[in-house]
Design brief:
With 164 residues, the chain is mostly helical. It has 4 helices and no strands. Helix 2 packs antiparallel against helix 3.
Length: 164
């Protein structure tokens, strides 16, 4: 994250205040922001997964403790009931965390797709600007603009059902 923030600051320093940033700097800033979202999403997904697995294991242990309390020599129904209910509740919390993990993965895939598209766009723009033949440069720019417009109109939005 620190490296991404430093990169963003360097990009912002390129265009002095009051001046409009050029297209390449704007695209790089957007790319930097999407990469930051990807990093945050990976962390969130890993945390959800680790917590979910830990909660499920803890819930299972608590549930087994409750069953063991019930079946040992002198049954203590109160302790066994509380332990079993607690175990089931912890299992539910673990399952909810794994549900959040699944949604984080979906959102991460969405951001990764945007990251790849943004990198492709930057590569296309860079290749267009480095072309020296004026006729080819104009034709390439038209193709890039057409591709960007086509992609923008065909990209599905991230809906609430996909786990925003």
């Amino acid at each position: 994250m620190k490296e991404l923030r430093q990169e963003r600051d360097e990009i912002k320093k390129r265009s002095p205040e009051g001046q409009k940033a050029d297209l390449f700097d704007t695209v790089q800033l957007n790319l930097n922001e999407i990469r930051e979202y990807c990093v945050l999403n990976k962390r969130q997904a890993w945390s959800s997964f680790a917590f979910g697995v830990l909660a499920i294991l803890l819930g299972l242990a608590t549930l087994l403790f409750g069953v063991w309390q019930f079946y040992k020599g002198i049954p203590n129904v109160t302790v066994a009931s509380i332990a079993s209910i607690s175990g089931l509740l912890i299992q539910f919390i673990g399952g909810t965390s794994l549900f959040m993990y699944r949604n984080s993965l979906r959102q991460g895939n969405f951001y990764f797709a945007h990251l790849v598209q943004m990198q492709d766009m930057m590569l296309a723009i860079k290749l267009c600007t480095e072309t020296t033949d004026a006729g080819k440069k104009s034709a390439l720019q038209e193709k890039v603009v057409e591709a960007l417009l086509k992609r923008a109109s065909s990209l599905p939005p991230l809906s609430a059902s996909e786990g925003v």
